[in-house]
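Sequence only, no structure available. Ideas?
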Amino acid sequence: MNFKLKYILLTFIFILIVTFGIEAQPQFTLIYVVQNGDTIYDIAQDYNTTVENILENNHIENSSKINIGDELVIQTKKQIDDKKLKLDYSLTMSESSNRNFNLDVGKNYSVRYNPEQPLPDVNIPPGKIIQYYVDSGDTLYDLAQSFNTTPGVIMALNNMENSIIRKGEKIKLPINNLSKRQVLAKTVNQSAIEIMARTIHGEARGEPYMGQVAVGAVIINRVLSNQFPDNIRDVVYQTNQFTAVADGQINYTPNNTAYRAAKEALEGVDPTMGSLYYYNPKTAENKKWFNTRKFVVSIGAHVFAK
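Reply:
I predicted one. Tokens follow.
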């Protein structure tokens, strides 16, 4: 397959780790773009790995199910010539496009090799794209995994000439392949988390920890439901829905447990199994209405229902 190398897009994730008295060496994950005539067996042979490893790393059940343009994660032990650790590209708008880039110890890099390889065509609606600020340690490969897309799609979406991303840089990321819950978790802001923690603290402090997560899960389930507002603030402050809002307990300062419960609920932990309502049988004033709902589970002093 060497004759096809000029058509290959390689994305290297270089992770340089400094340890006690040991010289740091670059580690990498290879993203291979499938070309015409490729087979998984041939790719495995070229990169000193196995068909089984490629199938497992890419969640492929059938080795024949690959298409031209697919991006495959290759875990390889193949050595890279030191000369290839210098790649020509422009680091900034003010720097020469012929300047060599040298890897710095302790930094993470995602480098696009052979940049003449065409990027994929993308046609993602604006409503399915978010703005993301690159954090320390982010790589293009990690972001692609997190957003259920590929490095090539992210590069095309941002008109990137190379795959280097830097902390603080603002880039576009697609959310078209994420569920509503995943989108909510990735787009929620600190203000919304604060509101959730205050609601959990006001409604369920003193309850078992899972009971506090459950209150947070009901808030999330409502946001995701067509029966309620589509954001956390409006769900919580909807008229006559949460006792903590009515009696002012939402204004109490939440403890760390409430914040932790809010974050777990945002991450998808749902001990209520999709419930939209909850009440305390000992204090509820509208028991007849709650009795019309489908009982799901009791946690601590609360009954959760759909």
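The two ends are 57 Å apart (CA to CA).
Hope that gets you unstuck.
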